[in-house]
TrEMBL record:
UniProt keyword terms in alphabetical order: ATP-binding, Cytoplasm, Kinase, NAD, NADP, Nucleotide-binding, Transferase
UniProt key word NAD: yes
Pfam families attached to this UniProt entry: NAD_kinase, NAD_kinase_C
GO cellular component, one term: cytoplasm
Active site: D74 (proton acceptor)
Annotated protein name in UniProt: NAD kinase
Localisation: Cytoplasm
Species in which this protein is naturally found: Fluviicola taffensis (strain DSM 16823 / NCIMB 13979 / RW262)
MF GO annotations: ATP binding; metal ion binding; NAD binding; NAD+ kinase activity
């Protein structure tokens, strides 16, 4: 069994987590495959002597990697997904960050989680992605997002207008600071912060949510995920921002953005004793009296 591990940063607080993780992988007889920069950090900052292969790009996941783990927060999880792409390699996130909807296994419980994985007491939860096409192919082959695609104003306080079409049928021109198109996975991310609905994984929908709309009667819209969404921006400036899961690039006025459901899905490991409803309830403190 070859197990890939990705993390953005090694800190004094997280070094014990990496040490315990590596020890368990060794005890299970699995082969550890580390992202190249992560391996360098573990050797330099933690003094770990690691007999581990390295990966540097998504093609490496087509060469015999069986499982992928991320250690960090949801941003780290999303970066790991960008390596996995269409390889089919399942992923599990260990949370050393803050909220953690995707990386939902705490650093205090991950030994139990790894043991369940070793015993194959888990299932896969399919998560859809968004594929983005622009006139200038801004993102090249890295044009997929697991959470959301966002169009935003740039370097100005003026609102922008985002013209929106569904299957070439006009939906609306949003006067706002921006517009989010989110997957069910991304419903608990930026979409949630902007008043969008929470959608359970497995629902075959996309969510269109304006950011600070000028018209108070404009509300988020949930649409089937087989409907292509076409967007373009108008405003007082020439350049604006497009963001795929936080990876922002510049986009020109009236440059069209076509958003479709990606042709593949991500296999997220779901352990026997965890479910989305428990995660939502616990992370958002639903049902708890916190008035005092």
């Amino acid at each position: 069994m070859r197990v890939a591990l990705y993390s953005k940063k090694v800190t004094k607080a997280t070094i014990p987590v990496f040490v315990r993780f590596a020890e368990m992988i060794h005890r299970f007889g699995w082969k550890l495959v580390l992202e190249k920069e992560l391996k360098e950090q573990l050797v330099k900052k933690a003094g770990m002597c690691l007999d581990a292969d390295v990966f540097t790009r998504h093609e490496d996941f087509h060469n015999g990697i069986d499982l992928a783990f991320s250690i960090g927060g949801d941003g780290t999880f999303l970066r790991t997904v960008s390596f996995i792409r269409n390889s089919g390699v399942p992923i599990l996130g260990i949370n050393t960050g803050r909220l953690g909807f995707l990386a939902n296994i705490s650093d205090l419980q991950f030994e139990e989680a790894l043991e369940l994985v070793r015993q194959k007491r888990y299932d896969y939860q399919k998560r859809s992605l968004l594929r983005v096409e622009t006139e200038r192919s801004i993102y090249g082959p890295d044009n997929v997002a697991m959470n959301e695609v966002t169009l935003l104003k740039k370097d100005t306080s003026s609102m922008i207008t985002v013209n929106t079409f569904l299957e070439d049928k006009y939906l609306n021109s949003y006067w706002a600071d921006g517009l989010i198109v989110a997957t069910p996975t991304g419903s608990t991310a930026y979409n949630l912060s902007c008043g969008g609905p929470i959608v359970t994984p497995g629902c075959q929908v996309h969510i269109i949510t304006p950011i600070a709309p000028h018209n108070l009667n404009v509300r988020p819209v949930v649409v089937p995920d087989n409907m292509p969404i076409r967007l373009s921006i108008e405003g007082r400036e020439r350049n604006y921002l497009i963001s795929l899961d936080g990876n922002a690039k510049s986009i020109k006025q009236n440059e069209e953005v076509l958003i479709r459901k990606a042709e593949y899905m991500i296999n997220v490991i779901k352990l026997e004793d965890t479910n989305f409803l428990d995660t939502i309830r616990n992370k958002m403190s639903w049902g708890k009296d916190q008035r005092n």
